[in-house]
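Project outcomes to date are best conveyed with an example. Our students and postdoctoral researchers have been running inverse folding experiments weekly, and each run begins with a structure described purely in tokens. The record below, which covers 420 residues, was selected by the lab manager from last quarter's runs and is presented without edits.
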């Protein structure tokens, strides 16, 4: 059966919450520690412990600070930077054990008085382990070239390394767009902070371990209120987060704080193939990853549900969106297809047609899930000369499929198995 993972972002998401949920599902902590250690970046270790969030038991993932072992972190380069600086990378107000709720306070107030020592973890005393690795300090910021080199030497698969590097580039591009500057000139405080490197590489490792063939996400709860950045006060979501969430269903929650962080938004949007309610599936396991704060009457957790597609389920609803075009430069159809896929299209194809006044034209057909129809229509109106589209709802039935990789004399080859 096809394995489905559902990202339930009812309380937003951050990188450490994603890792906490994966550990809660059974990702072995020693394996995660070894993968992160292979980055050869300096941090005191990572830990995982059981906590309660509004009565819900969850796993809290933490990156330990150098100061816990008396190691002083050198001053970071470029003190002015992106909106991501708000995440407490200046060591203000950490809890007595110096664990950083990195990225990751997840519900911090962004006023640099984070008060990490009073978030009432309600510890239950379960697993807590540390790992030691070496080189640059936690508060140092790394360039994209540094990060790519670290990822290349880590214990991810080739596909995992490529995905992680692409995610860091996407994060840098979001920051560059916000500040209207080339990617190379962005002060990589969010991209290069060790917190984000650990979260992104760890999540890629954990999701490879999970081996889901399909990932679906709920709409994202962004929280509400404002965030304090080096560049001023901004409404939630912060600028980089908003850029990463373009085209993705999201909403403002009742909790007056930031619930979805840039790293969390990056992970969800990089992996989710569709957004909507829980798909029809036979749930096998559920993991809860804890945020740093414990709200009253609102569990501050990210929920990850894993199960198998129900083979007895009804056919999946889809929408076909179409338009004919007879007055557009044919060279534009290539980039159009790329933009349609980026907007969530399941399939795109073109067919030659004969239109009114005997003009030759092109029939553009896009297959998409219902919740992405508006995004597809928007691309067609913005990127083509059409002044109207039509759509119809349909059902489709797909064979179960899995992606496998095999090592051969010619290298690693990926192939697909479909069955009924």
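After processing, the design step wrote out the following sequence:
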């Amino acid at each position: 059966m096809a394995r489905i993972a559902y990202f339930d972002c009812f309380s937003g998401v951050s990188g450490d919450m994603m890792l906490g949920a994966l550990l809660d599902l059974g990702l072995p902590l020693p394996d995660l520690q070894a993968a992160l250690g292979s980055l050869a970046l300096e941090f005191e270790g990572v830990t995982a412990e059981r906590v309660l969030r509004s009565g819900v038991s969850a796993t809290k993932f933490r990156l330990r600070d150098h100061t816990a072992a008396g190691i002083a972190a050198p001053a970071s380069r470029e003190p002015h930077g992106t909106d991501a600086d708000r995440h407490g990378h200046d060591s203000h107000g950490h809890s007595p054990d110096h664990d950083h709720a990195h990225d990751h306070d997840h519900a911090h107030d962004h006023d640099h008085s984070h008060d990490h020592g009073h978030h009432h973890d309600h510890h239950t005393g379960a697993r807590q382990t540390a790992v030691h690795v070496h080189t640059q300090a936690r508060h140092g910021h790394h360039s994209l070239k540094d990060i790519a080199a670290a990822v290349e030497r880590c214990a991810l698969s080739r596909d995992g390394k490529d995905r992680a590097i692409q995610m860091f580039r996407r994060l840098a591009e979001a920051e560059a767009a916000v500040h209207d500057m080339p990617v190379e000139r962005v002060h990589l405080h969010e991209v290069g902070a060790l917190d984000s490197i650990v979260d992104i590489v760890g999540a890629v490792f954990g999701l490879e371990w999970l081996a889901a063939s399909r990932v679906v996400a709920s709409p994202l709860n962004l929280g509400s209120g404002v965030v304090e950045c080096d560049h001023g006060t901004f409404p939630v979501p912060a600028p980089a987060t908003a850029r990463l969430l373009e085209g993705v269903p999201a909403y403002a929650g009742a909790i007056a704080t930031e619930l979805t962080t840039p790293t969390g938004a990056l992970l969800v949007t990089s992996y989710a193939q569709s957004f909507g309610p829980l798909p029809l599936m036979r749930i096998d396991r559920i993991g809860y990853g804890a945020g740093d704060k414990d709200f009253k009457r609102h569990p501050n957790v990210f929920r990850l549900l894993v199960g198998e597609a129900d083979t007895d389920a009804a056919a999946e609803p889809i929408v076909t969106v179409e338009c004919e075009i007879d007055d557009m430069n044919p060279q534009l159809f290539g980039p159009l297809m790329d933009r349609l896929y980026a907007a969530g299209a399941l399939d795109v194809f073109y067919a030659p047609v004969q239109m009114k006044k005997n003009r030759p034209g092109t029939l553009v057909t896009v297959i998409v899930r219902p919740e992405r129809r508006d995004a597809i229509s928007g691309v067609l109106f913005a990127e083509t000369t059409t002044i109207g589209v039509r759509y119809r709802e349909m059902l489709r039935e797909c064979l179960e499929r899995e992606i496998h990789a095999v090592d051969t004399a010619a290298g690693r080859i990926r192939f697909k198995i479909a069955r009924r």
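Residues 67-139 have pLDDT under 50 and may be disordered. The CA atoms of residues 55 and 118 lie 17 Å apart. The training component of this project remains on track.
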